[in-house]
Amino acid sequence: MWVWPSQLRRHDIIGMNRRNIRYIGRYNKRRLYPLVDDKLKTKLLAEAHGITTPPLIGTVSTQFEVKRLHDLIAGHGGFVIKPAKGSGGKGILVIEAVEGDQFLKPSGARLGLEDLHRHVSNILSGLYSLGGTPDVAMIEGLIQFDQTLAKYTYEGVPDVRVIVFRGYPVMAMIRLSTAVSDGKANLHQGAVGVGLDIATGCAVRGVQFDRSRRDHPDTGHELSSLRISDWNSLLELAAGCYEMTGLGYLGTDMVIDRTHGPMLLELNARPGLAIQMANGEGLRGRLELVEKQSDRLSVKERVAFAQRHFARQGELQASTGTALARS
């Protein structure tokens, strides 16, 4: 069943054209894009602003340096190799454990050192980068995510996406990895998206492949009881990325580490719109309300405003969710 544009407007759904012209084009200066398009630059900028990120083990920037990889990862029981300029979760290789000369992925698949060399070489050649430009491989420490989320995810680290507009957190979701997504928290690859109430961090609605979902396809655990711990700290971290980057419309991706709490993974100057389906509600009304507010408030004041005005409880009816998902 398809829906008319008028029905989408009633649900405040925005499309790519409105996002690109009204919000990204107006509030994101192009000269600032490199700060978020390059994950290494984002990490260094975050460290300069006192924002916690996963520890950087090292980088590989030339083919000659690939042979140094073994020395970089020596002594680390797990790590992540990712392209600095990658997008959509492409090129991210998670190694959960090391057994002798074997490197284990979350799925249990075993790789050798030559496989890691090949993957890093592909990153450097630009296989996963925006526009196919030469890239840098980053090696980060493995995140030990909050175990209260373990029953909601499968073989991967769940991450929280928050859309921040003019410094206000306006909408959030958590992305849960699945067997289909190969342990990656990427909705296009089959991860489950769960909309989160801005006021409490509690689950609002779940989707997978743009269709409503009430439980995790692999663990079988229901999603309605999901709640993010240290929620206010996470929202304040997300909101603070406005001052850090100067970008008015951005997506912040974060994880909850069991020791360090909320940590920033990366930023996106062109965040996708699937978050609307995960929440069963559009962004338009929230964005228009924020446009009327001052951007000179403190981080805590902006977060408090969002929690007062964008609170949600419960899950939408399945029929509404299906209509939105197919639109």
Structure overview:
By secondary structure, the protein is α+β, with helices and mostly antiparallel strands. Helices cover 30% and strands 22% of the residues. The protein contains 11 helices and 14 strands. It has helices at residues 5-10, 16-27, 34-37, 39-48, 69-73, 113-124, 231-245, 275-279, 284-291, 299-309, 318-326, and strands spanning 56-60, 79-83, 93-95, 97-99, 102-104, 110-111, 137-141, 159-165, 168-176, 192-196, 203-208, 211-213, 249-257, 261-268. The strands form 3 sheets. It has a 7-stranded antiparallel β-sheet. It has a 4-stranded antiparallel β-sheet with strand order 1-7-2-3. The chain has a 3-stranded antiparallel β-sheet with strand order 4-5-6. Strand 10 (192-196) and strand 11 form a beta hairpin. Helix 7 packs across helix 10 (299-309). The protein is globular, with a radius of gyration of 19 Å. It starts with a helix and ends with a helix.
Descriptive labels:
11 helices; disordered C terminus; 4-stranded antiparallel beta sheet; 7-stranded antiparallel beta sheet; 30% helix; 327 residues; alpha+beta
* Spatial strand sequence of the major β-sheet: 12-11-10-9-8-13-14
Helical stretch tally = 11
Task: Please summarize the sheet with the most strands.
Answer: 7 strands, antiparallel
**Which outline best applies?**
globular
Which whole number gives the mean pLDDT? 90
Beta content:
15-25%
Helix coverage percent of residues? 25-40%
Structural class: alpha+beta
The whole-angstrom Rg is 19 Å
Unreliably modeled segments: 316-327
Q: How many DSSP-defined strands?
A: 14
The rounded distance between the terminal residues' Cα atoms is 9 Å
SSE run: HHHHEHEEEEEHEEEEEEHEEHHHH
Protein name: Alpha-L-glutamate ligase-like protein
Organism: Candidatus Halomonas stercoripullorum
GO cellular component, one term: cytoplasm
InterPro entries: ATP-grasp, RimK-rel_E_lig, RimK-rel_E_lig_ATP-grasp
